[in-house]
Recover the amino acids of this structure.
């Protein structure tokens, strides 16, 4: 299992709408993420910055499986309204570097 950290950023003024959209994600999206190996996905917000921690069997494989998935297409279209940059499916990795953990 991998733990992956991601950073995204909201467009100004979209904080409340973004949080409302995540109050309950669509059941189809939940099922698709779980089928793709996601065990946990947590998001924190500080101002416009979003910090995600994803626990997943294989992050690159999950990204390939979700890219173009019928449950993810409308969700990503909705997220595009809120985020300053679209999700990068092509890299299959996070550019957030792990630095330290309290043992």
């Amino acid at each position: 299992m991998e733990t992956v950290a991601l950073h995204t950023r909201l467009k100004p003024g979209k904080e409340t709408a973004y949080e409302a959209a995540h109050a309950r994600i669509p059941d189809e999206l939940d099922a698709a993420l779980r089928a793709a190996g996601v065990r946990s996905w947590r998001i924190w917000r500080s101002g416009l910055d979003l910090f995600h921690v994803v626990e997943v069997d294989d992050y690159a494989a999950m990204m390939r499986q979700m890219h173009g998935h019928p449950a993810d297409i409308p969700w990503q279209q909705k997220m595009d309204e809120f985020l300053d940059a679209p999700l990068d499916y092509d890299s299959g990795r996070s550019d957030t570097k792990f630095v330290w953990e309290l043992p």
